[in-house]
Protein 1
Amino acid sequence: MTNQMTARSYVQQSVTRAVPQATMGSPRQPKSVSELGIRQTVLDDLALKILYLSGPFSVLDLSNHMRIGLAVADELMRRLRTMQLCEVTGTHDNVPDLAITSQGRSRALELLSLSQYADATPVSLRSYVDQVRRQSVRNVEVHPPDVESAFSHLVLDSRTVWQIGTAINSGGSIFLHGSTGVGKTTIAETLSRVVAEDAVWIPCSLEVNGQIISIYDPLVHQAVDDGPRFEETDQRWVLCHRPAVMVGGELTMDMLNLQLDPSTKFYDAPVQMKANNGVLIIDDFGRQRVRPEELLNRWIVPLDRGIDYLKLAGGKKFEIPFEMFVVFATNMDPAKLVDAAFLRRIQTKIKVGTISDEQFCEIFRRVCKERALEYEASMLTDVIDVIRGKLHQALRPCFPRDIVNQICWAARYERKEPVIDHASVMRAVENYFLSKS
């Protein structure tokens, strides 16, 4: 990704389903150059740059590098030979070996000065739009067992779990709001794992008006290992779990637009394009470099109509699908962040509140179990009394883990084994909370 794009991605946990259903709608392998759906000149230029940078090699190597079928690569090779840009130097197992000519070398250098893209053959805009629409996140359907299983590692009340499941089935957007430390980000991350049970096809790159846009990003997209074989599908597409992209305070308006790398001279897709068919999490919403009103103006049409508009450096505008589950997580009041028109487009609003005594104790128990630490359950009553009574704090899900962390850090400093007793817990509480005195 470019320096301006610092979106965080979360690698999904292993899925429980076998081969994802998306393989049934896999893009078919083109049988000819015309079936690739992109400009002939773009294909010629790409092949020549690859031959210059990686050749000499065989037509089969060209096929593998460009992710096109052998018959298509052979057709392309014949065209380059006709233009005297490459030549056949021999054969191996009836497959021609290729080398670039001096004329081809000169042409390749000119092309590389314009764009250094020399990877997989891009797909057409029409193919991209059609495939994204077929894979819409609105087609995801989950039921109580799915959601309850995914969120079993969290201590949530049944109403919140029900709201989350309903929101996923909507395929729309969601506002997670509540005070800091109540688990909004963790809920958003877990929600993305539920959606990732399915798989979708992500193109390596896209061609628009002769320009290349890189889309597949191994830092964002997790490929499915047991995908279809080469001859069955168009290898310009990678079968991946539905993506999950998170952006926080680093979000800027530039990250929502195409990023033209000045050194390579081709584009990197914006965060929402990489999140298409998956989940886009806007963490700490309201604390970005971009003001909420600016984001409102930029996304009010995409959220409402499911389409977005991007612009190339030359001014060419084009339409792409906005097919993702957008999660806004904030510890600020949503009504004070954005206006009613924007809130109306966020179909589900879930307030994640503080926790009960029983939930606090359960979370504390789970944290101690993870660390193989023993403790007296009765001791937690005193802890709760101090937090609520003396410190005037509501109970939050983050408190148990943070308190245990304080105990473990102190034990490491003192070169002792961590022990959960009244003295260590109270010292951790004193060290963790801001004193009122």
Note: Residues 1-20 have pLDDT under 50 and may be disordered.
Protein 2
Amino acid sequence: MKLNYVDSDLSGPFPILSYSNSLCYITLIDDATRVAWVRFIKQKSETVKIIKDFVAGMELQHHKTPKAFRTDNGREYVTKDLNRFYTSNGIIHQFSPPGSPESNGVAEHLNCMIEESLRAMLECALTYDEKLWAEAVLTPEYIKNVNIIWQ
């Protein structure tokens, strides 16, 4: 079922501040459809706010609350505030075992694909501007989602 399970991972910090003043990005993927959302943040501590906003947006737009979030054991995902939020909304938080990124495969695969595309785009750009990394991150996410929608 759509939006029952959401896979998430965080990437960064990047060495250069983007034009939107971000250093990291978080991916959120619907496990059923593989539709992905990318959100940019300045620091990893903003992860809790992003997840809360994402859940509120899904409730407002699709009338669905995710049943579970699958993440790694990163400190940005293991907080008292986020745990309280999950508990109060009936959301189960599933962790992958420490040191095994393959257990969080959906999110890790997306981040790997995004970062490979990012490197290729920035290396091939005629006017190479490192601050464009955030815009380059959005390109593979957009192409992936368009391919899913039109299948």
Note: The first helix runs from residue 47 to 62.
Protein 3
Amino acid sequence: MARPNRGAEDRIISFLRSRIESGQSLPGSRLPTREELVQRFRASKITVQKALNRLHEDGFTVARGAAGTFVRDTLPHLCRYGMLFAWRPAAQRPWSDFWRVLQHVFLGMHQEGTRETSLYYAAHDSLQSRDAQEILRDVQAHRLSGLIFASPPFGMEETPILRERQIGRVGIMASPTYDINAVYPDMTSFRDRALRHLRERGRTRLAVLRMTPISAPAGDDEWLAAAREHGLTLPPHCIQYCPPEAPWTAHPTARLLMRLPAEERPDALVIADDNLVDHAIAGLVASGQAQEGRVDIIAHCNFPATTSPALPCRRLGFDCHRLLATCFDLLEAQRQGKRAPALTLIPAQFEDELSAPATPIGTAGTP
């Protein structure tokens, strides 16, 4: 049953929040007094106080006793940013290394007084969960300036998460979805830089380890064509896939690649997914073929890295600081009403090209 006077309480909140969001009530200014609100809305003092309490809990106001209620200096609709993951990390449903690095970097971009960061967890098929209700409440209360989706928000088009106009949105996804600006790692640049480096090293026989893609044949064609362009031999059977739920299969796969006849055995290996790197390198060590420079390794990485490889290799991948900074730039452009590119690709970089050292961050647990 609805609480008595909840309608009046909501109207008071909507009125005051509108004044704040429009700039009519500036940060540091005093809001109308309780007595003025009682008269304006013909509401009880209790109802007015409940409305003011909710505004305070939502981060819009600060109470200063007899002096009144004032607008906060930092307001959530201007400085609070959320990042939405489809689920919480758990043993039965672990995160990819990419998500772990994104979480770590995103929380580190909190800037006291100017930018607040919050994590959310929700998927279209679990919008009744406690986690989903948290982001729905914050969206409807206008407690967010912008929202970054860690993956495409499929199935959310009829929810406030996508329909609330006050909030900017950016998705970390390969193409714009639901008219949301997209930012994504440029895997074409990863492939081309990896192959160019291996050719410059004098390598000729290539193998590639990948995570199982949605469309394997198209992905194969791109790698085969690029290998030919760079003068590298890449037999189709030397492109091997590992399922996301079993990255450990990279270990026996790498060992088997090293068991090919000497004239076919790869002298270069591209591990094209960071979730496979540790397993694949362990397989190379077990094969006994990786020592003494017999094989050059390019290992995909999302920086800052979560681990350090057990064998010498060149780490090539994507700076998540740069990726998220681009997301924030797009959100700011949206807030200012500026046009922003529909898709921004982040180029691949070798580890020694980063502006800051890629210090391992460890494994992030459930927050």
Note: The mean pLDDT is 89.
